[in-house]
Every structure is written in C-alpha cells, then in structure tokens.
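Notebook p. 47: complex prediction with (2S)-2-hydroxybutanedioic acid.
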Amino acid sequence: MPKTIRVAVTGAAGQICYSLLPRIASGEMFGKDTPVILQLLEIPVDKAQAALRGVAMELDDCAFPLLQDIILTDKPDVAFKDANWCLLVGSKPRGPGMERADLLKDNGKIFIGQGTSIDSVAADDCRVAVVGNPCNTNCMIAANQAKRLKPERFTAMVRLDQNRAVTQLARKAKVPVSAVSDLIVYGNHSPTMYPDFTNAKISGKKVAEAITDEAWLKESFIPTVGKRGAAIIEARGLSSAFSAANALIDHVRALTTVSSTLHSVAVCSDGSYGFAPGVWAGVPVRTTAPGTFQVDRSITLDEFAKSKIAATNAELVGERDTVKELLAAKA
Ligand code: NAD
Ligand code: LMR
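Predicted complex, structure tokens below:
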C-alpha cells in the first residue's frame, strides 16, 4: 500500500472545502489506494471552529476507508506539521463588483504567516497549492517566506480557468469536452489571463479549423473565460465552489501523475514566455516525477498571444509592487 499522505487544508469550514474534503478523503486527489490524514485549519473564532467540527463529523459519517485521521486546529504549526501537501484555500472571497486584486490587502498577510509555518514544520517533500485569491500573488508571498522549501514547491491554481476554457471551446465547436486538448492558460488568475486558443486542438486539429469565427475567439471566448468567476458571483451571490474544488483535484492530480500531457499551472517565472522572473504566472507544465514539473518552453506564440501575455504580466508585476511591504515582512 502507498505511504499515507498528510494533507493540510486551510479554510476547511468554507464553501470550497465543503466540496473538496470528501473528494480528498475518498481518494480522488491522491489515488484510490493512498491513505490520507487531513490536517484542517480554520481561524480561531468559535463559529468557524464549530463549523469545522461539523465538517469533521460529516467526514466521520462517510466512513471513508482511506481516511486515517482528521486533525482540527486553529494553529498553522499544527495544521502544517509534517504535511506532504498544503492546500491554501482559506481567505476571503470577493463580492459582487470587486476584482480579485482588491483582496490583496486583506488576504495577502495570511500568506506571510502560513508560508513561514510551512517552511518550518512541513515535510521535506512538501508541495503547496494556493487557491485563496488573488492566488498568484498570495503564492508569491508564501514562497517568499520559505528558506528550506524552494520556489518550485509553491504553485497557484489556474486550472479552473483551463477547465472553463475547454468547455467554452467544446460548446462552440459542438464537440464533447474530451475532444479539446492542449489548452493552456497563461498569466494571472484574473480577467487578464490568456487562454491560448492558438495552440489548443479540437479533435487533434488546430482550433481555428473547427471554429472559424476568429472574432468569437478573440472577443467573446477570452473575456468569457476571464470574467467567469464574476459571472458566477453575480448569479449565485457567492463565488464558485465545487468547480474550484474540482479544479484543485485536477491541479494536484496533474502534478502527482507523471505524463507527457501539458497542464496550466501558475509557477515561479524563470522569464519564460516573457513573464517577469519571480512572479507566479500560469504556463504549460509537464510532470516529470510525482510532485516535480518542468515548464515546456517550446510553444510558439503569435503577436496576438504575446500582446495578451504582456498585459497579464504587467498586472502580475503591478500586484507584486502593491505587496512589496508584505514581501519584505517577517512573520
Ligand atoms: P469561504 O468564505 O466560504 O471560506 C473561506 C474560509 O477560510 C472561511 O471558513 C474562513 O474562516 C477561512 N479563513 C480565512 N482566513 C483564514 C486563515 N488565515 N487561516 C485559515 N482559514 C482561514 O470562501 P471560499 O468560497 O471557500 O473561497 C476561498 C478562497 O478561494 C477565496 O479567496 C476565493 O476567492 C478563492 N477562490 C479561488 C479560485 C481559483 O480558481 N484560484 C476559485 C474559487 C475561489
Ligand atoms: C473564480 O474564478 O471563480 C474565483 O477566483 C472566485 C472569483 O472571485 O472569481
């Protein structure tokens, strides 16, 4: 039997985690024969801790065979102790009319303390995935605190954007989602992101062969994907939850499954595709060993794609400037 994986999850009484935790416990994230221990962090507020106890009761009541233990805590050092994966979901979601970057001042500081704690107590093989918004820059803040764990251990989630883009292309081309491949989202998890239809394929052929309406691709598809989060908030009054949980399952599975398939993952930029070194940007990655990825630098991008990437890079650089005090701060 594979070794037990300790999974720390923050914001565990929140809405994303309500959909996420049963799926981790049932083996959908790490495999159907991998036992897991859930180490769940919530804020030290009675209501949140009570809700967390309720979530744990429900997990108990599922009698998941792979779930070996559940640890409930309000202390980061307890939640992250010996964790192999840290899933950083806990943070404020935006409301109607806000942009995700508006959350930086409130949410950014959470990631100073959590980055420090992870670096000091998590397992040597620890990997971190950041979901809490704005996730690219929060990930940079957490990674910036780490001395033991290298930047490549920290990734942020743009997989929901990839999944959204795949569905939009499939709908337009009137094909099943499984016919769409090679769709990579570049840049920030924000409306500036660039879902690259120019290199994506439908039934193995260039998207432009199946969808000849270029105006739709440039003027409708891109903003629909980029503003999908806001559309869901408008419709539900709450931000996306089970689709975000589902994307995090896909994100972690992609990074733990060795394969030639490319996935959209926000990683620390080494300058590839024109991103400023040191910002966390969505790029094509391929998993070469469980938990270890390589950026594929071989994708050819046209001038349109390059101009979109320049815009999303400028936003990431701007966010980095906004949080320069948080980057200089010590927990
Ligand atoms: P939610 O408000 O339902 O839950 C968030 C939970 O986090 C709350 O229970 C809160 O008490 C907890 N929390 C806050 N600060 C914490 C801290 N310091 N430590 C531990 N827990 C803490 O929100 P949600 O809908 O679950 O969304 C969570 C985050 O995920 C938001 O920032 C949201 O914008 C983001 N999100 C990102 C994506 C993405 O694709 N990257 C998608 C959807 C949502
Ligand atoms: C999403 O994309 O659904 C999330 O990031 C929530 C949001 O604020 O849009």
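Notes: Residues 93-94, 100, 133, 160, 229-230, 232, 239-240 surround (2S)-2-hydroxybutanedioic acid (ligand 2) (CB under 6 Å). The chain has 13 helices and 14 strands.
Next step: compare against the earlier run before touching the bench.
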